[in-house]
Design brief:
Chain lengths: 184, 163, 478
């Protein structure tokens, strides 16, 4: 199955692939996918029956999302983070889009640097990304530049740490009444 | 209560029984449905299981009108202060049932987000086990609480800083 | 005066009123004219004489239905609230109310901050996280086989869908095939789950807009479905029945009778609900044109499932990306037009019928065979072999203690849950536990779209709108 090939794509691999692909860059057969990845140098892709997976650098992520919107992927489905911990780049942001008219799924994977986790926000392209980016910020501490209201969403506002990072302890945390006086 | 007609000397015990009886027969719950358990709590109140048999079909949204808080479901770190505040707003006498594994111990979620047992936040009278406890379990818990109330004193000792 | 006389006089009056104004009344049409007439009526300016000739017959007469606007205002059939017309209300006159996290509507611990201008909602901000359970973190500490125990508790009204999505994603990575009977059992359970979830939705939606009897009725049929679930899985909710590799156990003997009973009783109940609600003027008033979400907004905010279909988006994952062989069965995708609460109700009612149709087809065509894969990698050896062979015993032990390994990779799988697209994204690093489990809950997107649906509507409609999107907070906060 095609998915199995999609192992964790570290940056070295992506960069290497990009470098080797750069001179005679083949574009995918699918016209729509070709239109999406064509203007983006760093984009690599995988094709399965019902989904396309595109890997792209953080710099080109926003414009790739915009291109996807223009090319029919109008439905925002999901955005989440993954912490690959020892890999470089450490984080990955995964954006999932859907095309209703010609059923196809597009997954965009963006590597995000571990020391300074910043990616552009796509809320201006897909308003639905709002909560999802807040969630990813809350749980992974990935900063979405340009997001209108990047605050914690699931955890209390004054929570310390980013729980879904791999270096955050798994076990329970004692109950704290930090915010008790503020809750009405 | 039936003071005048009682034989002398039993006035106080009878009063106590009478008050306790009255309390158990119309124990109104505060809605505190949180997760899956809340669905079972609602199922207990609905037609099939009919909590109205015990005078408890009224679930009050306002804690001021409630005697019993059924904490049904997982209590998160963010919810804990709210839960405590709702509890504080309930007027005495008040009881708490902790429904389900999550409310009692954190259940299968031993992680950063959940309070590992609601008894860290409010005093609990009855723990109902299960994930989710079926309506029958909850009813059993409620009846056990009724027994407890019947056997207890009218005034519960007030522990300062807790109640 | 007898009743008959009154009616006759009324008719006369009506005729008189209808005839007069067209001739000489200096009527300004539209809002401005209505306002002006309204003001003079109230203030008693000298122009009052102008309008008095409409009502020469005397003040006590009942007035006709078709008349000049000013009469309509007096009768109260046109309600002109001065406050609403006044654009000069500044920000200070708005008030913010806080709904939740603990509130009487049956939709869990959602907190809404609503900014009101009079009765009109101007801004809404959903605040979530009061049920955050950290399941995605817990999911990383459980083996692949234990995973469904965890995800089933997310969207607790459709536990089977959660399990199915997770199991399918894991199977995608594993590359195992599920025998046909296993697949059909999965479809049977998920479709029944759709029925029970929609029944609960009718119950809570009814309750939230004041039809308390619906609250009691809806549970009645749901209990029947839950009894069947309990018989098959041992639990009424949170079943952990669909697992990677198949399902936990075969259907019990006599399941056909239970299904037949359900197929008979549930439609009866639904017909009863339709009788109560379909033509009920209060229900229609409270749902018609309320909480509209347009198709474009659905796409932009990720609103899926019945809510999107009520807006006319013809998309169902069961048709577009069929899973577990659901494309073998015939069913239709009910669509709405207006995207309001009423259409969502109709779509869901129709979906109950369609799901029962699928269940009926399954009843007729249930294949024989194994209910889980024969792949020894994920499935423990049969009980008989364990008694005979040491290897089998060790194998059994290994699967249930350290768990099986899943090849490294990532996979996305989504299923059509009763609320919409339920997606599971799993990443494996090749070990016995997931590296990352992410669940895309449909309710999360629905809560996000609440401001869109609620803004500039009346506060009284807020709960109806909220309920109609059917958010399950366990799914929102996870
Ligand atoms: S105990 Fe079980 S059913 Fe109850 S809230 Fe916890 S997970 Fe849900």
């Amino acid at each position: 199955m095609a998915d199995e090939e999609l192992t964790e794509q570290t940056a070295e691999e992506a960069v290497a692939e990009e470098a080797s692909a750069a001179p005679e860059r083949e574009l995918p057969e699918q016209a729509v996918l070709a239109a999406i990845v064509e203007p983006h140098e760093s984009a690599t892709w995988q094709i399965a029956d019902d989904e396309w997976v595109v890997m792209v650098s953080a710099g080109e992520y926003h414009s790739l999302a915009a291109a996807a919107l223009v090319n029919g992927f109008a439905t925002f489905i999901d955005l989440c983070g993954v912490d690959y911990f020892r890999a470089r780049p450490r984080f990955e942001v995964v954006l999932t889009l859907l095309n209703y008219d010609d059923p196809m799924r597009l997954r965009v994977r963006v590597g995000v640097d571990g020391d300074e986790p910043v990616v552009p926000s796509v809320t201006d392209v897909y308003p639905g990304a709002n909560f999802y980016e807040r969630e990813t910020y809350d749980l992974f501490g990935i900063d979405f530049s340009g997001h209108p209201d990047l605050t914690r969403i699931l955890m209390p506002d004054d929570w310390e740490g980013y729980p879904l990072r791999k270096d955050y302890a798994v076990g329970s945390v004692p109950i704290q009444f930090k915010d008790a006086h503020k809750v009405q | 209560m039936a003071g005048e007609v009682s034989p002398p000397g039993v006035l106080l015990t009878t009063l106590e029984k009478g008050v306790n009886w009255a309390r158990t027969r119309s124990m109104w719950g505060a809605v505190f449905g949180l997760a899956c358990c809340a669905i079972e709590m609602m199922a207990t109140g609905a037609a099939h299981n009919d909590l109205g048999r015990f005078g408890m079909e009224v679930f009050r949204a306002s804690p001021r009108q409630a005697d019993l808080m059924i904490v049904a479901g997982r209590v998160s770190q963010k919810m804990a202060p709210v839960l405590r505040q709702v509890y504080d707003q309930m007027s005495e006498p008040k009881w708490v049932i902790s429904m389900g594994a999550c409310a009692s111990t954190g259940g299968m979620f031993n992680n950063y987000a959940l309070v590992q047992g609601v008894d860290q936040v409010v005093p609990v009278d009855i723990y109902v086990p299960g994930c989710p406890p079926g309506p029958q379990s909850l009813m059993h818990g409620i009846l056990t609480l009724h027994e407890k109330v019947m056997d207890g004193e009218i005034r519960r000792p007030v522990i300062h800083g807790v109640g | 005066m007898s009743d008959k006389d009154t009616t006759e006089e009324q008719q006369d009056a009506a005729v008189a009123v209808e005839e007069t104004p067209a001739v000489d009344a200096p009527m300004e049409r539209g809002e401005a004219g209505r306002r002006r007439l309204h003001e003079m009526w109230v203030a008693g300016t000298e122009e009052r004489a102008d309008v008095r000739h409409f009502t020469d017959e005397g003040a006590q007469e009942l007035l006709g239905d078709e008349g000049p606007d000013v009469l309509a205002i007096q009768r109260g059939t046109v309600v002109e609230d001065d406050y609403e017309f006044d654009d000069s209300v500044d920000a200070e006159e708005r008030q913010i109310i806080n709904m939740g996290p603990q509130h009487p509507s049956t939709h869990g611990v959602l907190r809404l901050q609503i900014e009101l201008e009079g009765e009109t909602v101007r801004r809404v901000k959903p605040i979530i996280g009061y049920l955050h359970t950290g399941m995605e973190k817990t999911g990383e500490t459980l083996t692949w086989l234990q995973g469904p125990t965890n995800v089933t508790r997310m969207d607790y009204l459709s536990p089977f869908h959660n399990e199915l999505a997770f199991s399918l994603a894991v199977e995608k990575l594993l590359g195992v095939d599920i025998p046909e009977r296993g697949q059909v059992i999965r479809i049977l359970m998920t479709e029944l789950n759709r029925v029970s979830s929609h029944l609960l939705w009718i119950a809570t939606q009814g309750m939230d807009i004041g039809a308390i009897s619906m609250m009691i009725y809806g549970w009645r049929e749901r209990e029947l479905v839950l009894d069947f679930f309990e018989k098959v899985t041992g639990l009424r909710m949170n079943h952990n029945y669909i697992r990677p590799g198949g399902v936990a156990a075969d259907l019990p003997d006599g399941w056909e009778d239970d299904i037949e009973m359900l197929l008979r009783k549930v439609p009866e109940g639904v017909a009863e609900y339709r009788e109560i609600l379909d033509e009920n003027p209060i229900f229609l008033d409270r749902t018609y044109g309320v909480g509209v979400i347009t198709p474009a907004e659905c796409r932009a905010y990720g609103v899926t499932g019945p809510a999107a279909r009520a807006s006319g988006i013809d998309f169902d994952l069961r048709k577009a990306f069929p899973y577990s062989g659901i494309d073998k069965y015939e069913f239709e995708v009910p669509l709405g037009k207006h995207g309001d609460v009423l259409d969502r109700y109709h779509v869901r009612i129709a979906e109950i019928d369609q799901s029962l149709g699928i269940v009926r087809q399954i009843l007729e065509t249930m294949p024989a065979g194994d209910y889980r894969t024969a792949d020894r990698k994920v499935t423990p050896p049969p009980r008989k072999r364990i008694d005979e062979s040491m290897e089998a015993l060790i194998h059994h032990f290994k699967i249930f203690t350290s768990g099986f390994q899943v090849p490294a990779g990532e996979a996305w799988q989504s299923v059509e849950s009763p609320r919409g697209e339920l997606g599971v994204y799993v990443v494996s690093a090749g070990g016995a536990r997931p590296w990352r489990v992410h669940v895309r809950g449909p309710s999360f997107a629905h809560v996000q779209a609440l401001p869109v649906a609620m803004t500039d509507s009346l506060i009284a409609d807020a709960v109806a709108t909220l309920a109609s999107l059917d958010p399950v907070l366990g799914d929102v906060d996870r």
